[in-house]
Hints:
Layout: H1 4-19, E1 22-27, H2 33-42, E2 47-52, H3 54-64, E3 77-82, H4 86-99, E4 104-110, E5 113-116, H5 117-125, H6 129-175, H7 180-192
Amino acid sequence: MAKPEKIGAVAEIANRFQTSSAAVLTEYRGLTVAQLTELRRSLGAGSSYAVVKNTLTKRAAHDVGLTGLDALLSGPTAIAFVSGDPVVAAKGLRDFARANPLLIIKGGILDGAPISAADLTRLADLESREVLLGRLAGAMKGNLTKAAGLFQAPLSQMARLAQALADKRSDERADGQPTADATADATAAATAE
């Protein structure tokens, strides 16, 4: 029969898996307490870093329906549970692992799908969500400005043609007969636009 402490620990890990947008499994062997504290700070707001027991984590992963973690759960394991932007946490882990080679990123889960350590590195190379949304908005605004210019061009050409015809008629009324230069100028102005 399972002990109540273990049942509570499995339930807590399962809850963290369900409420997190990402979970990154790492091996922390050889890191000091001060380095682990620094790592927790580098993950950003909304993220937590916890040392877990592999058997309890396997049970919690199976309880919430996560697959692909069993192979990663060997040796001393700690999990970074990410509730905020996964890109920020991935950057924090990547930068910390570069400075402290004892931290080994094994892989993890992103939105319920397993990802490898290489995928996490590619995720860390992305810009943050806010920057990507800003770029998308800028691109959309640029395209809308171009479209407005294209829609406005026929109207302005029509206005210039109407003005050229009005000038031609005023020349005809002033002289009584159209001049060849006035007709040619009006036609050239209308076709050039």
